[in-house]
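Hi C.,

You asked whether I'd gotten around to modeling the 223-residue construct. I have! Everything is below, sequence then structure, no commentary in between.
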Amino acid sequence: MPYYPVFLDLKDKKVLVIGGGKVAERKIKNLLTYGCSIYIISKNLTPALKRLVSENKVENIPYESLETFMDDAFMVIAATDNPEINTGVALQARERGILVNAVDQPQDCNFIMPSIVRQGALQIAISTSGKSPALAKKIRKEMGKLFGPEYGLLLELLGLIRVKLISHEQASKNKITFQKLVDSGLLEMIKKGNLDKVRGTLVAILGENFPVDDVVNQLVRNK
């Protein structure tokens, strides 16, 4: 059965990771991008995880606290090198109705983590429904070559423009405007670093009264 793709808001959510090896390290480094509160349970941590704990970016808690911490967790990731432990953790999480991922054990998961191509706010998630993580990784690398940094910058620019336009209650007009922007060749201009052409294109579509220099200058500052 296929998995339903969804993007979750993890900001300030409690995420519990069991395991302190390289796999757990990769999962935690990725999770830190999303602003969640991460608690790790493991007696042995990689040097990178020890550093994250010392910097108070991750909190290491004793295994005896697992059930207590799990009670109000939003997500649990079982990433030990012991499949039986991962299965037990996953069972406890599922009994509580919590999102749980047991690494490389799809039968114990109620969600699986996709391979992600990320450029700024743009995220493209790739899944093989747990059948071949290696193939998902291969596709991610290939797509990473197709979707370069210019996509993140274009999305940033469109976001800045949207903020300026959103106050004008002209939803249908704005929809047409944004379609023109997307189809205008801005992506290639940004890729080539041709800001003069970017400005000219924006003026042509948005009009002389739109603060084009403001959004372009802010884009450069955020770059």
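If it helps when you're writing up: The mean pLDDT is 91.

Thanks,
B.
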